[in-house]
Write a structure and sequence with these properties.
heterodimer, A: alpha/beta, two-stranded antiparallel sheet, B: mainly alpha, fatty acid biosynthesis (chain B), ACP (chain B), PP-bd_ACP (chain B), phosphoprotein (chain B), Ppantetheine_attach_site (chain B)
Chain lengths: 417, 78
């Protein structure tokens, strides 16, 4: 059976540094940090009191009040980016076979705020259960994909991928595979996350996963820097319209890039720590390249997972060196989490968008905030430090790794008919 | 407008996103005000909270209009 080619025909993003895909990309190329003190709740007693919040955003500009009230912020974010991507792609449910258009959405956690607030409310009472009827449908991690299908009448395959910080790369790879196999014509895929609440910051603080550089939020996410001390929590969403090539051509859609391949693997090592030699990271990049039938030296850019945690950045760098050999020194590497913070289940989607724009524009967005070399990291690698670099980018690889030891890599390449 | 009706109206306007002028004693939550079954459950819960009463399920099932809600609350408030 001949596999179909799969392209990207629409993008949408809502991030701490830009509220549309194009604004996000512009901020990425300028090296803007999205970190600032937390405004969402009183964080004064928390070890970490800053995060990368979405800014200048009012859901009522996008959804009517009644509709929005029944959605957790993670689902609201999903609806906003899905709309941007659907509009951007020109997908018209009235003119297409909606049974062949699906939604695959990633979220690491789902409706954390809803869960937190409902349980707080319950605990204030005398034990009489008075749970809101919308509690469960607002909170569950799959509701965003359901809501998107309801809005656009897309009746194709529909589900949610949950693999912590790899979730939305899984969504993209699943969409790619289903289209390749001829099971659908197009998908709205991506992911969203909204965890800058007491339970999110407190929970990740307890894991010692978050940076505590409260005196300088905007420089706290500093991947590969010797003084990095954890990731900075982000929030937001990214959506991609992933479409079968002939279907896209037939309707005259604009094509941003082509999906080259995808890989998935597990560390099988520890619930939160990465494998120290990056074994899972190495095997997932290898599988992505095999899937794409590409050689090592065809990769121009790696958008790394690079969360700015002490262990993760070392393990990923080891894996890149080991896998790519000498070519590791020729390619550009960057962690856009230095700017956006870590969007958890949405990270894969927004970083895929960074790769797609990079391929389209031949620009590598930087790793900002680098100051001091870490003796445990090979600084001869080109981490695209502090400023964007121009180079021809034919192929970009996006790595995402999640708690639980889930690893996913996706490859995006220039579209050549 | 009675105090109870005005409080009930306020809850309905807030939860169903309708205009205050649409809310009459005769208005049916589902037929006139666009509520689905989950919205109706939520309204009953909000009435319970606002008026500090408990509305048993078998009674709640009989409350389908604004007037029926106001009447039930008037008869059962503490």
């Amino acid at each position: 059976m001949e596999l179909k080619r799969v392209v990207i025909t629409g993008l949408g993003a809502l991030t701490p540094i830009g509220n549309t895909a194009h604004d996000y990309w512009e901020a990425l190329t300028k090296g803007v940090s999205g970190a600032a003190p937390i405004t969402r709740f009183d964080a004064s007693k928390f070890k970490t009191r800053f995060a990368c919040e979405v800014k200048n955003f009012n859901i009522q500009d996008h959804l009517d009040r009644k509709e929005a009230r029944k959605m957790d912020p993670y689902a609201q974010f999903a609806m906003v980016v899905a709309e941007e991507a659907v509009r951007d792609s020109g997908l018209d449910p009235e003119k297409l076979d909606v049974d062949r258009i699906g939604v695959i959405w990633g979220s690491g956690i789902g409706g954390l705020q809803t869960f937190q607030d409902e349980v707080i409310e319950f605990s204030k009472g005398d034990g009489t259960p008075r749970f809101n009827p919308f509690f469960i449908p607002k909170m569950i991690a799959d509701i965003a994909s359901g809501l998107i299908s309801i809005k656009y009448n897309f009746r194709g395959p529909n589900y949610t991928t949950v693999a912590a910080c790899a979730s939305s790369t899984n969504a993209i790879i699943d969409a790619y595979n289903l289209i390749r196999l001829g099971k659908a014509d197009a998908f709205v895929c991506g992911g969203s996350e909204a965890t800058i609440y007491e339970a999110g910051i407190g929970g990740f603080n307890a894991l010692h996963a978050l940076s505590q550089r409260n005196e300088s939020p905007e420089t706290a996410s500093r991947p590969f820097d010797r003084t990095r001390d954890g990731f900075v929590m982000g929030e937001g969403a990214g959506a991609l319209i992933v479409e079968e090539l002939e279907h896209a051509k037939k309707r005259g859609a604009r094509i941003y890039a082509e999906i080259g391949g995808g890989g998935m693997s597990a560390d099988a090592y520890h619930i939160t720590a990465p494998h120290p030699e990056g074994l899972g990271a190495l095997s997932v990049m290898k599988r992505a390249l095999q899937d794409a039938e590409m050689n090592l030296n065809e990769i121009d850019y790696i958008n790394v997972h690079g969360t700015s945690t002490p262990l993760g950045d070392i393990a990923e760098t080891i894996a890149i060196k080991q896998f790519f050999g000498n070519h590791a020194y020729d390619l550009n590497i960057s962690s856009t989490k230095s700017m956006t913070g870590h969007l958890l289940g949405a990270a894969g989607a927004v970083e895929a968008i960074a790769c797609i724009f990079s391929v389209q524009n031949n620009i590598i967005p930087p790793t900002i905030n680098f100051q001091e070399e870490d003796p445990e990291i090979d600084n001869k690698l080109n981490f695209t430090l502090n400023e964007a670099q121009e180079r021809k980018v034919d192929v970009a690889l996006s790595n995402t790794f999640g708690f639980g030891g889930h690893n996913t890599s996706a490859i995006f390449k220039k579209f050549v008919d | 407008m009675s105090d109870i009706k005005s409080k009930v109206t306020k809850i309905i306007v807030d939860k169903l996103g309708v205009d205050e002028s649409e809310v009459n004693l005769e208005s049916s939550f589902t037929n006139d005000l666009g509520a689905d079954s989950l919205d109706t459950v939520e309204l009953i819960m909000e009435f319970e909270k606002e008026f500090n009463i408990a509305i048993p399920d078998d009674q709640a099932e009989k409350i389908g209009t604004v007037g029926q809600a106001v009447e039930y609350i008037e008869n059962n408030k503490k």
